[in-house]
């Protein structure tokens, strides 16, 4: 129901934006509008390059691992290399990467690009204009047929909340390494990308087949910062909101009874500043 309302709000927002754009064109003319929008894109590129140039040029690497969801059970790896150039470009490569598999826990290249930008917009480009101008300075060199750039005939269903989400942790790691050597300590961010999903497959009270995943796995804690704790049960970086889901909603579609949910004490790890506490769920079939 909440997602249905969200769709309504999106449509209303689009209609309002459309109305306002027409008003601007009527007031100032089409030529001014086109020139102004192009300037917004150019501004985003200039502002984004200025942010990247604060980092020391070099190559920063991080690895992430994942198992396979599907008929092939194997450990897979992605070594992500982020190159910061003197011109203010970011180049993402994968010197070590597993091939695509028959399972669906893998990514097409557009999905990877979207997930990487979710991190960049929140960690570096948070105070610049958000538009395609930022994309001009970010490049991807990921081999086709790999776990992060599958071919068109590959199974695909789990990128944002699976292997792709773990890749986002490697992006955070690379950015934090670059921030550390560049003295940008306030931008150091402990990665937090691993989730344990609770799935169910059953008959509901109306004898209908039900299968799904309980979103409690998204009640993860945010990574600790250089100077402060991470937030408890925080957002996932590809969402601007936290979405653990209401207990009653899951009880309506799956034959489970929730006995409780809380923040798990001492789950934020060690250090002067801890990571955010994760969620703990107790339920029974």
Tell me about this structure.
- Helix content is 32%, strand content 19%.
- The longest helix has 27 residues.
- The protein has 285 residues and is an alpha+beta fold.
What's the SSE blueprint?
Blueprint: H1 2-28, H2 30-52, E1 58-66, E2 76-84, E3 90-97, H3 109-123, E4 138-141, H4 163-181, E5 198-203, E6 209-214, H5 247-253, E7 257-263, E8 279-284
* Total number of helices: 5
Tell me the fraction of residues in β-strands, as a range.
15-25%
The main sheet orders its strands as 1-2-3-4
By secondary-structure content and strand pairing, the structural class works out as alpha+beta
How many beta-strand runs? 8
Q: What general form does the structure show?
A: globular
Rounded radius of gyration (Å): 21 Å
Query: Considering DSSP H and I runs of 4 or more, what fraction of the residues is helical?
Result: 25-40%
Biggest β-sheet description: 4 strands, mixed
Order of helices and strands: HHEEEHEHEEHEE
The parts where pLDDT drops under 50 for at least 5 residues are none
Mean of all residue-level pLDDT scores: 87
- Terminus-to-terminus distance: 24 Å
Task: Write a brief caption for the model.
The protein has 285 residues and is of the alpha+beta class.
Keywords:
single chain, 285 residues, alpha+beta, four-stranded mixed sheet, two-stranded antiparallel sheet, 5 helices, 8 strands, 32% helix, 19% strand
């Amino acid at each position: 129901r909440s997602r249905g309302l969200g769709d309504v709000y999106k449509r209303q927002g689009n209609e309002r934006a459309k109305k306002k754009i027409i008003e601007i064109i009527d007031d100032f003319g089409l030529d001014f509008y086109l020139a102004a929008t192009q300037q917004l894109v150019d501004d985003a590129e200039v502002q984004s390059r200025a942010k990247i140039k604060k980092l020391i040029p070099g190559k920063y690497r991080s690895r992430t691992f994942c198992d396979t969801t599907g008929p092939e059970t194997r450990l897979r790896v992605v070594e992500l290399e982020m190159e910061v150039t003197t011109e203010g470009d970011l180049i993402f490569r994968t010197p070590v990467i597993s091939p695509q598999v028959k399972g669906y826990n893998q990514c097409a290249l557009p999905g990877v690009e979207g997930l990487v930008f979710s991190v960049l917009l929140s960690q570096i480009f948070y105070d610049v204009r958000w538009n395609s101008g930022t994309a001009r300075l970010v490049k991807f060199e990921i081999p086709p047929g790999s776990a992060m750039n599958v071919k068109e005939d590959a199974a695909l269903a789990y990128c944002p909340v699976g292997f792709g989400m773990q890749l986002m942790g490697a992006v955070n790691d690379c950015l934090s390494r670059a921030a550390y050597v560049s003295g940008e300590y306030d931008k150091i961010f402990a990665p937090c990308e691993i989730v344990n999903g609770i799935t169910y497959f059953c008959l509901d009270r109306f004898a209908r087949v039900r299968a799904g995943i309980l979103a409690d796995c998204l009640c993860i804690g945010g990574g600790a910062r250089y100077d402060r704790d991470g937030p408890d049960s925080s957002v996932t970086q590809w969402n601007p909101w936290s979405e653990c889901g209401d207990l009653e909603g899951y009880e309506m579609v799956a034959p489970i009874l929730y006995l409780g949910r809380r923040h798990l004490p001492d789950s934020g790890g060690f250090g002067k500043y801890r990571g955010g506490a994760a969620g703990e769920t107790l339920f029974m079939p």
